[in-house]
């Protein structure tokens, strides 16, 4: 990893470790920053989603990565171009930690142009703070260098993000979307965790009180599929621990990453998601790409601007939040699949099935992944688009850890059953359904039976879900009652065939995982 002697940024002006209020004041000076009725700031960025097509891992051997790569020579050329710009620029330097576990936390730094101070303010909320005794010679393990004003001619949208896993440096050019700062550090952290024998999970974490004990749940899911909602929805006075990324370590420790949350705000409702709504409406929070009226009021349901509005909130502003250092080892893991055909509201998986469905990473894409993904069926291994190594390594490590540190694993549909929203015969899996399922899992009150087609366990009864909604729990029943048995059978045959073909596309994936889909 980088050291101060190996890696230096030399701006014309450095604003070193500004306070949260100083960052807010600099954000207020931005012409595209709008003061809201919540007394926070809403920045309308030019870019409103991550730029996957413009992201490259630096490696002369691309066979070591599932994602696209760029040669080190080309990366050096791009770095020199960025460094030349920085020598004439005002840059903000924000320092902190990814994670707060004393054994595993990772020192991290962001360099960002002062003209885009909101990105520094948002990242400052997500980093765990410095201890207070770190001097100017403090050495970050991971660094993100971010220059929205630098164009990378010839790259998609004249934009490029280069990821140097060896040096621990990510460089971002020609994007002003905060997600590139957040994911820039977490992507490199993914590789670090894997190399330490753990598994990075694109997952939330929560603790649910149950009688005289508590259950720790991990919620794995692609952005926009209900991960944040499931994490923050309260059951039995549950408390959220983490929203976006955790590490599952070989000793069973669940390692956190962020001191806040980067939450989607489109359709954010005080009624359905009161915990997140209350935190978003605070003075200290930041909004990005949220529709706003001239009087300062915001409209979370306005589609005319963008559906990818976001907010960064502090965990300390979240009612019932729990410090990750107090979290016991995880008890169960949910794999979210926002689907609309024959995936049950919940099903229980054995170890091999768990590794297989984790590797399949099936869901419906959202605006978080850009226009190319929104609304389309996707398979993203581990539902983790930020794992920078080979995807087979994720699946194999998941099965390995399951054998060492057993967890109950469930697949949970957060979309619909029986068809899209335009089909009146379909049923929506609503937040109260999902909440009842999570509560039932924690309290061990769900009745299970074996699904004859897929071999996993499906629920025949869940406390809190009425009998008339049995089709959400057992899609086979819904299709049969509607005289659509042949349609159901066609879905089964197609999905089984496609899944096996997809899994066989990953060289090195444990055959034990692939066999779970056929046995």
Characterization of the model:
This protein is an alpha/beta fold and 519 residues long. It has 3 domains: 13-31 and 51-176, Phosphoenolpyruvate Carboxykinase, domain 1; 200-256 and 328-515, Phosphoenolpyruvate Carboxykinase, domain 3 (Alpha-Beta Complex), CATH 3.90.228.20; 260-324, Phosphoenolpyruvate Carboxykinase, domain 2 (Beta Complex). 26% of the residues lie in helices and 24% in strands. The strands form 6 sheets. An 8-stranded mixed beta sheet has the order 1-6-7-8-10-9-4-5, with helices on both faces. An 8-stranded mixed beta sheet has the order 14-12-13-20-24-21-28-27. Strands 2-3-18-19-17 form a 5-stranded mixed beta sheet, sandwiched between helices. Helix 1 runs antiparallel to helix 3 and helix 7 runs antiparallel to helix 8. It is globular, with a radius of gyration of 23 Å. Residues 1-5 have low confidence and may be disordered.
| Spatial arrangement of strands, main beta sheet | 1-6-7-8-10-9-4-5
Number of strands: 28
CATH architecture of the largest domain: Alpha-Beta Complex
What portion of residues is helical? 25-40%
Q: Termini separation (Å)? A: 44 Å
Q: How much of the sequence is in beta strands?
A: 15-25%
Oligomer: single chain
Shape: globular
Rg measurement, Å = 23 Å
Average predicted local confidence, pLDDT: 93
Structural class: alpha/beta
Uncertain regions spanning at least 5 consecutive residues: 1-5
CATH class identity of the largest domain? Alpha Beta
Q: What is the CATH fold-level name of the largest domain?
A: Phosphoenolpyruvate Carboxykinase, domain 3
Largest sheet: 8 strands, mixed
Whole-number count of domains: 3
